[in-house]
Inverse folding.
């Protein structure tokens, strides 16, 4: 028992002692580096660490305590493990627990610690090192080949063009590193094709392709990554070649016909712009109507200058310095004229012609306000040193060479000179006003108006205001008794030379040169005087949209449009129209020019659009036929001629205008040449001329009360040769005035007849009426008696109707008076009247049968017949023909007329009868009498007076 107790005590002492000794042996912790950098190649397990994995312990060489037993890794799902290769040296190894994939994760970071073996074999009381950071980078392996993003590529290119890039192909690589994931090169596999590809995959053609030679190319393309690994599969690139696309306007016609009177006509209703798929950012197009070859630059009204001024409301009192040559306006007779078109009176000056304005015509009272206006066409002056070219000049007639006022061109500058006389103030005053304008020398017609409100002078060119760019001052002119000479086309140099002569000649064309003293014209009137009647138009401005900007020039001959949307531009151009508001426009060609500029993104111009040259063909208008109808032969007693009121010459005059319409109504026969239709338009003058000897002012005259012109746009001039009524006004107003023209003769003793001729005009003589001749007989009788024929029809105004064909206007009537005579004369008169009635009834019967046979093809118009005082004066000393012989003569004449009627059965006019059956016998007799009135001439040789 005692021995057992002693053994237990020994064991316990021994164990306590060992414990104390062990604590003293493992005194230090293992030591490792603070951080490690490692590299592992994907799909391997070995990690190369820098520095190597080594753990040290200061307890070495003590067994267990100085040895390393483990490395532990702390991190979430770190696919690595560390193993101890040598416990004594502390070397370790870091390796992957499974293959590493770079495409999944390129880098890893985690914590590692080293553990020693403790104090003994059991590993008790082991110690661990501090924590070290490990950063592992995964090296890539070029395991993936490039692949293209699209299974096939398509492109279209136009023949005949070299492209920088037709299209771009693109490949990708799934490797994780830049070296193996980037595509470093592309290659065309297909041999012998005119294409090349660059490193970025852009395919271009190396030569111009032809659609006729090859319409499609199939190209195989491969790609290489930077590790020179090629794509597993090449990609197909299909390139189509299309015919060359020509940028420009499409869907337009070169010729556009315009029918007068149809208003606005669209020029390009189906037009569109082809840009060949260009990257268009904006389009600007200009439409220009070129009408310089027409009259004074476009279709304007061609009435006389005075008529136009009245139409536009211009102030009265203007003086026309370049009127048409005539008896009272002979100073323009020596000038060269070019009638131009539409009766525009144009004077051409070639540097040798000029005209002196007679003193009686020279405008007086040029005060501080006056207006000078003219049409001018002028080009650059010939020669190196251009001389002054004078349009208008007022200079001293003799002795001196002072210019009082003048209008001239010098070096393509328009200069107006105005030298005022001395007054109470002796100071410098504005004397020369200069304008520098392109219009002065562009060889085109322009309308110039100079308004003078001294000292302010304003120039209007085509209705646009221009201020002078230079005004020079000068001393006033000393007053003198020297007469002045006004000239056109040059300046008169009457003094300071051996022989007076013209100088500073004008080279160009002038028309409508006028001076209006005392007043200036308003801009409204000026615009009216030069306004074009034709131009460009847009049907609907509202439908253009906000994206379209447009601008018209003042004459509306140029239209500019701009927009950033191609379709809006197309729609806007389709709305452009041509319009001509003249009732009878000048026929012919109006040229059209369309120019277009296309701007692309980031470039000034990228597409060239060819200009368009087209033309509007203005068709010949239906020319009006102006017809004057009325009584053309009558006799009146001398007392009416000698009365203070005189004799009304045209009491029932009627002026109508008709045109032929080509449209053939279905109900009318097809053999007619057209349909007559009455139209309404203005006249600009009517002349009543005396046929034969001119009027003798001592005993006869024509009279027209000035009150008849009030409220109308009409004026009148009266002379021994006749009366001229002029001004643009309606035909009805002309009728009213002409019906008031009277003829008076206060010495009719030796007067038996007077003849007059009436003609009317529209558009300054472009359309003229028939010559209506009137014969007036004077009845001399001591016992005058008015005989009333109750069978006569009162004259009525003609009503215009539609006719199948054109014809002659037949409208006459006779009236006279019966002087007192013997009973036998009355019997003879009654017998003659009965004969006329019988013949008339027969003629009506024949005409009625012919009309029935033709199916009432022609309507008869009303014919004036005034026989309210029908008188046949017979010489009782003559032998009369037997009634039977007269009847036979009448029958023969009727047969001849019947043959003529068969040839002219369609020749019916608006002057034929529409009277009732009761009136037909008398009117038929009158028609027969008209056609042979040369047999009814009055025999006044045996009248008893």
């Amino acid at each position: 028992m005692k021995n057992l107790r002693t053994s237990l005590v020994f064991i316990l002492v021994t164990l306590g002692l060992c414990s104390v000794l062990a604590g003293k042996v493992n005194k230090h912790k293992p030591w490792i580096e603070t951080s490690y950098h490692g590299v592992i190649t994907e799909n391997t397990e070995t990690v190369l660490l820098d520095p190597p994995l080594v753990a040290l312990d200061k307890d070495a060489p003590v067994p267990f305590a100085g040895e390393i037993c483990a490395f532990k890794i702390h991190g979430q799902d770190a696919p690595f493990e560390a193993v101890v290769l040598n416990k004594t040296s502390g070397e370790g190894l870091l390796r992957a627990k499974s293959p590493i994939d770079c495409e999944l994760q390129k880098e890893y970071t985690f914590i590692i610690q080293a553990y020693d073996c403790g104090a003994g074999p059991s590993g008790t009381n082991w110690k661990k090192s501090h924590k070290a950071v490990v950063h592992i980078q995964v090296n890539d392996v070029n395991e993936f080949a490039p692949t293209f993003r699209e299974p096939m590529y398509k492109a279209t290119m136009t023949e005949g063009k070299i492209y920088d890039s037709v299209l771009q192909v693109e490949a990708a690589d799934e490797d994780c590193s830049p070296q193996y994931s980037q595509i470093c090169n592309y290659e065309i596999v297909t041999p012998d094709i005119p294409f090349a590809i660059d490193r970025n995959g852009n395919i271009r053609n190396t030569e111009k392709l032809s659609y006729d030679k090859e319409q499609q190319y199939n190209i195989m393309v491969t790609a290489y990554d930077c590790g020179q690994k090629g794509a597993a599969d090449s990609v197909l690139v299909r390139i189509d070649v299309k015919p060359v696309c020509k940028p420009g306007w499409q869907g337009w016609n070169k010729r556009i016909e315009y029918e007068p009177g149809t208003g606005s006509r669209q020029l390009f209703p189906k037009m569109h712009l082809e840009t060949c798929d260009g990257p268009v950012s904006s389009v600007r197009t200009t439409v220009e109507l070129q009408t310089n070859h027409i009259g004074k630059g476009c279709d304007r009204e061609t009435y006389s200058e005075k008529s136009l001024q009245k139409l536009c409301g211009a102030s009265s009192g203007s003086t026309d310095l370049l009127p048409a040559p005539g008896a009272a306006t002979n100073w323009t007779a020596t000038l060269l004229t070019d009638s131009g078109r539409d009766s525009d009176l144009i004077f051409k000056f070639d540097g040798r012609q000029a005209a002196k304005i007679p003193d009686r015509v020279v405008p007086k009272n040029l005060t501080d306000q006056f207006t000078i206006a003219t049409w001018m066409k002028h080009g650059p002056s010939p020669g190196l040193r251009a001389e002054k070219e004078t349009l208008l000049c007022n200079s001293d007639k003799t002795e001196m060479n002072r210019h009082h006022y003048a209008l001239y061109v010098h070096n393509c500058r328009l200069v107006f000179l105005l030298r005022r006389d001395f007054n109470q103030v002796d100071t410098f005053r504005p004397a020369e006003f200069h304008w520098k304008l392109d219009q002065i020398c562009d060889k085109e017609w322009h309308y110039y108006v100079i308004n003078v409100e001294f000292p302010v002078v304003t120039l209007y060119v085509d209705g646009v205001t221009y201020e002078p760019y230079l005004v020079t001052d000068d001393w006033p002119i000393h007053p003198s008794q020297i007469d002045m000479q006004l000239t056109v086309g040059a300046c008169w140099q009457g003094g300071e030379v051996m022989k007076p002569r013209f100088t500073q000649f004008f080279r160009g064309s002038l028309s409508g040169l006028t001076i209006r003293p005392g007043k200036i014209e308003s801009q409204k009137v000026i615009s009216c005087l030069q306004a074009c009647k034709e131009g460009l138009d847009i049907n609907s401005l509202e439908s253009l949209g906000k994206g379209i900007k447009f601008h018209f020039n003042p004459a509306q001959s140029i239209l500019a449009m701009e927009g950033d949307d191609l379709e809006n531009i197309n729609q806007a151009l389709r709305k452009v129209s041509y319009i001509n508001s003249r009732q009878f426009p000048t026929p012919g060609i109006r040229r059209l020019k369309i120019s277009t500029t296309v701007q692309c993104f980031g470039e000034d111009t990228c597409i060239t659009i060819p200009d368009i040259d087209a033309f509007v063909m203005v068709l010949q208008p239906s020319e009006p036929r102006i017809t004057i109808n009325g009584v053309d032969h009558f006799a009146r007693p001398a007392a009416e001629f000698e009365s203070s009121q005189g004799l009304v010459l045209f009491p029932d005059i009627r002026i109508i205008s008709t045109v032929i319409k080509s449209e053939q109504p279905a109900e009318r026969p097809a053999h007619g040449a057209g349909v007559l239709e009455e139209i309404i338009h203005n006249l600009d003058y009517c002349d009543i001329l005396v046929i034969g000897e001119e009027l003798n002012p001592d005993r006869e005259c024509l009279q027209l009360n000035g009150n008849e012109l009030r409220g109308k746009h009409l004026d009148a001039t009266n002379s021994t040769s006749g009366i001229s009524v002029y001004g643009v006004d309606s035909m009805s107003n002309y009728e009213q005035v002409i019906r008031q023209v009277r003829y008076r003769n206060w010495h009719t003793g030796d007067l038996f007849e007077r003849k007059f001729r009436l003609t009317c005009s529209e558009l300054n003589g472009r359309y003229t009426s028939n010559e209506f001749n009137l014969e007036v007989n004077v009845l001399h009788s001591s016992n005058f008696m008015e005989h009333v024929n109750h069978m006569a029809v009162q004259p009525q105004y003609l009503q215009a109707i539609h006719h199948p064909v054109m014809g002659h206007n037949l409208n006459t009537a006779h009236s006279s008076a019966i002087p007192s005579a013997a009973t036998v004369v009355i019997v003879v008169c009654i017998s003659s009247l009965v004969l006329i009635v019988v013949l008339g009834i027969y003629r009506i019967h024949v005409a009625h049968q012919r009309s029935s046979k033709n199916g009432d093809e022609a309507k008869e118009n009303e014919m004036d017949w005034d026989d309210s005082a029908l008188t046949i004066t017979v010489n009782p000393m003559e032998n009369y023909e037997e009634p039977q012989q007269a009847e036979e003569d009448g029958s023969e004449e009727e047969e001849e007329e019947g043959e003529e009627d068969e040839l002219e059965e369609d020749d019916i006019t608006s002057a034929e009868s529409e009277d009732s059956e009761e009136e037909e016998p008398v009117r038929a007799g009158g028609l027969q009498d008209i056609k042979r009135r040369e047999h009814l001439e009055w025999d006044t040789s045996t009248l008893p007076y």
